Amino acid sequence: xxxxxxxxxxxxVRVGKHPEAPSILDRVSLDLMPGETLGLVGESxxxxxxxxxxxxxxxxxxxxAGTTGQILWQGRDVQKMSARQLRRIRGEEISMILQDPMxxxxxxxxxxxxxREALRRSGKRNLSAAAEAALAEVxxxxxxxxxxxxxxxMSGGMRQRIVSAIGLxxxxxxxxxxxxxxxxxxxxxxxxxxxxxxxxxxxxMAMLFITHDFGVVARICDRVAVMYAGRIVETGPVAEIFARxxxxxxxxxxASVPSTRHAPRRLPVIEGQPPAVGNRPRGCPFHPxxxxxxxxxxxxxxRAEIRPGHVxxxxxxxxxxxDPA
Amino acid sequence: MTRDLSFKxxxxxxxxxxxxxxxGPYLLEHDPLRGSLRARLDPPAWAEGGSAEHLxxxxxxGRDVLARIVQGARISLAVCLVVIAIAGSIGTALGTFSGxxxxxxxxxxxxxxxxxxxxxxxxxALLFAAVVGPSFLNIVIVISMVLWSQYARMSRGETLRVxxxxxxxxxxxxxxxxxxxxFRHVLPNIAPSLIVVATLQVGVVIVLExxxxxxxxxxxxxxxxxxxxxxxxxxxxxxxxxxxxxxxIAIVLVVMAVNVVGDALTDRINPGLxxxxx
Amino acid sequence: MLKHLAGRLAEALVALVLMSLVIFxxxxxxxxxxxxxxxxxxxxxxxxLLIQQLGLDRPMWQQYFTFLGNALQGDFGQSVTAGREDxxxxxxxxxxxxxxxAGVALAFxxxxxxxxxxxxxxxxxxxxxxxxxxxxxxGQSAPSxxxxxxxIYVFAVHLGWLPTSGFGGPAYYVLPALTxxxxxxxxxxxxxxxxxxxxxxxxxxxLARIKGLSEWSVVLRHALGxxxxxxxxxxxxxxxxxxxxxxxxxxxxAWPGIGRLAYESIMARDFPVIQTVVLVITAFFILANLIVDxxxxxxxxxxxxxx
Lengths: 325, 278, 307
Prior knowledge:
The structure holds three protein chains of three kinds. By secondary structure, chain B is mostly helical. Chain B is built from nine helices and no strands. Chains B and C meet through helix 3, helix 4, helix 7, helix 8 and helix 9 of B and helix 1, helix 6, helix 7, helix 8 and helix 12 of C.
């Protein structure tokens, strides 16, 4: 069996050092194999972005101080790395595409400067040629001219492609995508996903794809992990989860996605709001909103592998297959 | 945590300032205007040659510095209140009107505000004060002339924001008149931002008043304005530092407290203003 | 962009004309130039003659246009004090002292303010940050006339390190420049700290970190550039603060600049000089704002595209 590329073990992120401080992530564990694309799905506030940031230690000092558990990159603990070691990982081995293409480019520097800055670290000789090639790879027309342009002169879709060119400049083994399509128009979203899929194949890399959209997951991911209130509640291969979602929350999420072929005709709405950080219920975090909840759900649910690769944290797994009609 | 502590300290200091200004003069035995020629330039109690009779020493006419600082607090407070009332109501009226009416009226009025902000107003103030002569009324008018434009700009921007809100539309469609809308819906909603401006301006008013008094065109002597006291003590700085230093410290403390409170209010009420206190 | 600049220029001219009108009205309506010019022993005939000579018997608007026309030709009249110097020459002769002082103050203020602001931002929450913030708070709260006197007392009178006042070599600049600059120093420090903190938590700084850049590159190449934009925006205000401050500071330090000239002429009701000083200062004011506009263009590419 191959070693996982990234292995997260019991990652807990609290707001500050205090052991009783409210937690954003609560004992999260997941593995990512080389070349695999894992979708991380959850509502906003579920902690999925914090998880992505934690891998590169990009969280604010307060969150960093409240981080426990292990993040193993090819067997080495990212948490214990020196600043210098960490910098070697960033960009070269793990890279990231951020959510907001409008904000993630430096407004006062030209595209070329920002791109070459990343290319330089990978030891490329002819930086200008490399920069043009990098823009061409992400389908930017007339790349030579675009290198002299500034971010404000470009559309959101184009900026996001440039951000991915910067992310890929050092040919990383893992690309973390934090809701890269959320800020884009619907038509451009699809194009961009196609591009990402092509880039993943060309660069032979793994991807951690953070999103709130199961439709996106269906398109690009191999496996999916569903997050709710700082915990991963269900993990499994995409086809398996779509066919047999077992966690009530996953079922509700899937049901509320009209764009997937798997959606039922009637859209059941999940009652209530996800709990705020610091106000999360005991036991299973979903039980106050769950139709199947019982008193048992007040205590932490057991973890079980109900089918090969399909792991679930729930007292009352939903046995009936999800109606694909 | 330090932020909260400094806010409480500053607020406490301001309360003390207001209380001293209101009641201080009745509690002190010394007359701030009458001196004793035998007690000229007496040092403060803790310095060599000082006595408990005059805790903060005396000035060149033998007047008690503490009594004068206390009386000065009253003058500073009075100037602040009157200026903020005048500049605030003129500026708010113009700004709200401008923002509410819009169109060319708005453009003309805002150009005027830009102009007012781009002129070296201290010179105008000095000129005006010099021409009409120093008096309480004049200094209040002069400082108000300088400061109204900030209220105008703020209230105009806030009115623009508020006037497109749903509740204003609702009020309009339900047949409420313009004046009623402004008084019932616009003003209450822009008030918090105006309070922030007013707070941040208290410090500006105190320093401006003190500066003009220092230059001899502010509150006329023998009334003890803090700025005027610093000016009077200037000639004796070598032998009697306290006459200048102590009223200045009073200014610094009050202005510092106002700035801390103003910053805290800005953070809470209108974070967009942050860093604009320059 | 050119259109924008032209607009600013037109606005500047309007400001100048408006200022001249205000000064003219103040001097004619409120002040009485005749009473100032005549000696106590003058007769009513002397008085009428002078009124005629000065053109004060003509309608106000005529007088204003005569004043404006003369001013455009560089004729601002003569000082009414004993010297009877040419007003414009007098003002221009005082200009170098003021400009050099303001220049020194602005330079040290900018360098130190940016340095302290960045330091406070990257050491946020530590003792260094607290110290810088206290200094900034003090600087924004201490009135310059008092600060100047205290600095003179400590460094000139008590320690004897620096001259008390007057104009001369570099040592003479230290205290006045410090007094003139402290408020602006505090303002710049606060501004840079705030905008630096904002930049450091921005997405583009995150992206720079994702690239694997060192913390120094992140701060200097990505955060600093952006956090200086608000400083440029406020440069006009800072310059205005310096001019305003110059009146007080030059008076405290007996500095032979236009600030003190303005004060002295106002006190002596020397209207030709007052008019000249105020107009010259206003012109500088406007010039400074135009320079700020140009600077803005240079630093922020977004502005170049915007009309």
